[in-house]
Design goal:
The protein is of the alpha/beta class. Helices cover 29% and strands 36% of the residues. The protein has one domain: 2-Layer Sandwich (Transcription Regulator spoIIAA). Helix 1 runs parallel beside helix 2 (62-75). The two termini are 20 Å apart.
Length: 106
């Protein structure tokens, strides 16, 4: 597990070779999105699933959404957004992108 520390931001990446779990915590914005993008780009064809646990996000802007959409475009149906988060849900609703992501409440 690798942890990166930025003010109001942490990201954990857990990779067992078949599942890549990315757990961003804090504010996902123009300053922290590049770190998320690097983590998401670690997903290879060997991974059966890329899970992004959004539970710990306290803020997400359009750059964060863009990173999630780019990952979804790259890995298609292997991307799963996990965790309940009203901040993320509201952004997906406002941008009419909620239907583009597979979701899991757990």
């Amino acid at each position: 597990m690798k942890r990166t520390q930025i003010a109001n931001w942490n990201i954990d990446v857990i990779d067992d070779g078949t599942t890549l779990l990315v757990i961003p915590i804090g504010e996902l914005d123009v300053h922290t999105t590049p770190e998320l993008t690097r983590a998401l780009e670690r997903c290879t064809n060997a991974h059966k699933v890329l899970i992004v646990d959004v539970t710990g996000l306290s803020f997400i802007d359009s750059t964060g959404l863009g990173a999630l959409l780019a990952a979804r475009d790259r890995v298609r149906d292997r991307l799963l957004l996990a965790g309940a988060n009203p901040v993320v849900d509201r952004l997906l609703e406002l941008t009419s992108t909620a239907g583009l992501f597979q979701r899991s409440a757990s």
